[in-house]
Specification:
Layout (H helix, E strand, L loop, with lengths): L7 H9 L20 E3 L4 E3 L11 H15 L21 H6 L8 E6 L6 H17 L10 H4 L4 H12 L6 E5 L14 E5 L14 H6 L10 E6 L2 E3 L16 E4 L3 H9 L3 H15 L17 E4 H10 L1 H7 L12 H13 L3 E4 L2 E5 L5 H11 L8 E5 L8 H13 L9
Helix pairs in contact: 8-9, 9-12, 10-12, 13-14
């Protein structure tokens, strides 16, 4: 099938309103009788006899498939891989085939960052530094002081419910806070470890109201295992997950990639601190003499980040000069670096200390009108193996009503109705 040159607005429509576009165009062929096709992003097998996509009729399956095909035409291929990693024409080598049958026999911890932005002491301290920042006329982006950045919607409670239900192999759960703790949290549970910023962040960078310096030093949390998974509190597990879905048997973390051109385009056109972080990392690596062309097109998915302390420490040393500059900023600015979405994975990719792979997930902006469609789709899918392993409920943007919060809470309560052992 020839490439289609569609207007940009139509391309964006296709990409935004179809949840997951993970493959390159080489992965797709038009449906035909008596042939099986694999849609890797949803792990759904199509054939003339059966299709395992829950709660969708055949007409919707074909419609979704064709829309995904059109969108896939605009997905960048990774130069180093010559295609996306799910492409059937990129066959696994012997080492990769053997790796699939091994078991990851090492402990894995979880690390959450959490803040209660409604805490009166936190508000007072934040306002104090906001005034000082204003007097110095320092740079600051609205993303760094917006309500969404500090708002607590109890997402952590439901995320921990998903951990108990679907990741029983987790050793410890570290919750990083600024001297706070959730009121509902059973902090004496043997798996729960509350960690204060001052326990691992150098004193000269404290206090901080930005996740940038926090992320740069997470690997220095006392008693953290060599292998760990970093999560925002708005990440959730949708089904049972194996340790091997995050790490190879030899201990390398997987680099979960997003193949949508819209994500990459956004990094170069947007002026948000997150978008600037991407270009900041590339510029710094280029200045240090790395061949950044090999990582062009690499965009991490907004999902849990498996990592090793070795990779994180290596990145901390490599980017130390930049950290010394931006970690002084009390709030997000355009000179910061997002360590887990950008700095560590990009450097590790170039040094071949992680394994790039495809991943399926739902990203839901809780303020958008289409949020209920995603909620219904996830609830209809249940917790079965055909579901993507993760979803993110991002509290971004503004809304004229508070209905979004009610909708989100209702969805989470319906999907995770059982109280976890981490709650009182």
């Amino acid at each position: 099938m020839k490439y289609l040159y569609l207007p940009k607005f139509f391309r964006n429509f296709l990409i935004r309103y179809n949840a997951l576009f993970s493959c390159c165009a080489a992965c797709y062929e038009i449906l035909s009788p008596n042939k099986k096709r694999i849609c890797s992003s949803l792990d759904v097998e199509f054939s003339n006899k059966k299709q395992n996509l829950p709660a969708l009729d055949s007409q919707n399956v074909i419609k979704t498939y064709l829309l995904r095909y059109l969108s896939s035409l605009f997905i960048n291929k990774i130069p180093e891989l010559k295609a996306c990693v799910s492409c059937p024409y990129r066959l696994p080598n012997l080492t990769e085939r053997i790796e699939q049958y091994k078991t990851a026999n090492f402990p894995v911890d979880l690390v959450y960052t959490w803040v209660d932005g409604e805490d009166s002491a936190h508000i007072a301290l934040r306002n104090q530094y906001l005034r000082e920042h204003a007097e110095k006329k320092g740079e600051m982006h609205e993303d760094g002081v917006g309500k969404a950045h500090f708002r607590n919607n109890d997402e952590l409670k439901y995320s921990l419910r998903s951990v108990e239900a679907f990741l029983p192999w987790v050793r410890n759960i570290f919750i990083v806070t600024a001297g706070q703790k959730p009121k509902w949290l059973h902090e004496k549970h043997p798996k729960i470890k509350i960690v204060d910023h001052k326990d691992f962040i150098p004193e000269q960078y404290l206090p901080t109201f930005s996740c940038r310096p926090i992320e740069a030093f997470l690997h220095r949390i006392p008693d953290l295992s060599e292998h760990y998974i970093y999560l925002n509190d708005d990440f959730f597990f949708a089904r049972p997950c194996l340790k091997e879905e995050f790490f190879t048997a030899s201990g390398k973390p997987y680099l979960f990639l997003d193949w949508r051109n819209s994500r990459l385009d956004g990094y170069f056109s947007a002026k948000t601190p997150h978008a600037k972080s991407y270009t900041n990392v590339f510029n710094f690596m280029s200045k240090k003499g790395l061949d950044i062309a090999k990582a062009s097109g690499i965009v991490t998915a907004h999902v849990p980040y498996p990592q090793t302390k070795r990779n994180a420490e290596n990145a901390c040393d490599f980017f130390q000069e930049a950290i010394d500059e931006y970690a002084q900023d009390k709030f997000r600015t355009s000179r910061g670096m997002a360590f887990y979405p950008h700095a560590i994975p990009l450097l590790s990719f170039l040094e071949k200390t992680n394994v790039p792979c495809d991943v399926s997930y739902f990203y839901i902006n809780t303020k958008r009108i289409y949020r209920k469609l995603f909620y219904k789709a996830i609830l209809a899918g249940g917790h079965n193996e055909n579901m993507p392993p993760f979803f993110c409920l991002n509290d971004a943007g503004v809304s004229k009503t508070d209905s979004w919060a009610r909708d989100m809470r209702g969805f989470l309560e319906a999907y995770y109705p059982i109280k976890s052992c981490f709650e009182y």
